């Protein structure tokens, strides 16, 4: 497996120049072309773990849902994945099946993968334990419901108010 150093040597450029290219910085067009060609020839793939060690970012997000069979969750997940992939993020998708213990295992799994953020669709504001994510300084965003404790941001909906507005509109 080729390394960034192999790419730099084959392109007759510095490792810093190749790194700048990989991080989206502007280079002279001739250098960009040379690096692209060498990457293709060597079948180089950047090492995500190496990047994480340098930047403390994995460019990955974890999403945990309680039930992936709902249309709402599917629609939101597809949009999250689409938007994040456009800015270079990968998404780990986990289903807790509405089980609190499984949800905790999924949170631990995502922490072990070094995700930058956890997006959580908790079943309801039950005893979901996000303390491990909080201890690791991983932001948690709850969608549609909140959790009973911990530090998190949330996006919730007032179902009664929405129902009233829809009914009023239809009548």
Which overall shape is indicated by the principal axes computed on the Cα atoms?
A: elongated
Strand content: 5-15%
Q: Using only CA atoms, what is the Rg?
A: 21 Å
Residue windows where pLDDT falls under 50 for at least 5 positions: none
Main sheet characteristics: 5 strands, parallel
Structural class: alpha/beta
Question: What is the number of helices?
Answer: 8
Tally of DSSP β-strands: 5
Approximately how much helix is present in the residues? 40-55%
**What integer is the average pLDDT?**
83
- Quaternary form: single chain
Distance between the termini: 65 Å
Strand order of the largest sheet: 2-1-3-4-5
Q: Element order, helices and strands?
A: HHHHEHEHEHEEH
Give the secondary structure arrangement, pairings included.
Layout: H1 4-11, H2 15-22, H3 29-42, H4 48-55, E1 60-65, H5 71-86, E2 90-95, H6 100-112, E3 117-121, H7 131-135, E4 140-143, E5 153-155, H8 159-170
Parallel strand pairs: 1-2, 1-3, 3-4, 4-5
Helix pairs in contact: 1-2, 1-3
Features of the shown structure:
171 residues, alpha/beta, 8 helices, 5 strands, 14% strand
Commentary on this structure:
By secondary structure, this protein is an alpha/beta fold. Helices cover 49% and strands 14% of the residues. The N and C termini lie far apart (65 Å). The chain is elongated, with a radius of gyration of 21 Å. The longest helix is centred in the middle third of the chain and has 16 residues. The relative contact order is 0.10.
């Amino acid at each position: 497996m080729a390394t960034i150093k192999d790419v730099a040597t084959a392109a007759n450029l510095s490792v810093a120049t190749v790194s700048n290219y990989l991080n989206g910085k502007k280079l002279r067009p001739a250098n960009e072309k040379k690096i692209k060609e060498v990457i293709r020839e060597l079948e180089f793939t950047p090492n995500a773990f190496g990047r994480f060690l340098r930047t403390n970012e994995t460019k990955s997000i974890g999403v945990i849902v309680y039930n992936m069979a709902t249309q709402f969750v599917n629609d939101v997940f597809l949009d999250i994945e689409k938007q994040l992939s456009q800015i270079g993020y990968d998404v780990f998708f986990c289903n807790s099946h509405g089980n609190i213990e499984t949800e905790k295992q999924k949170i631990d799994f995502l922490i072990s993968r070094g995700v930058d953020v956890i997006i959580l669709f908790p079943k309801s504001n039950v005893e979901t334990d996000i303390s491990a994510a909080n201890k690791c300084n991983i932001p948690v965003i709850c969608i549609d419901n909140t959790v009973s404790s911990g530090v998190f941001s949330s996006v919730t909906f007032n179902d009664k108010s929405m129902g009233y507005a829809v009914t009023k509109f239809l009548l």
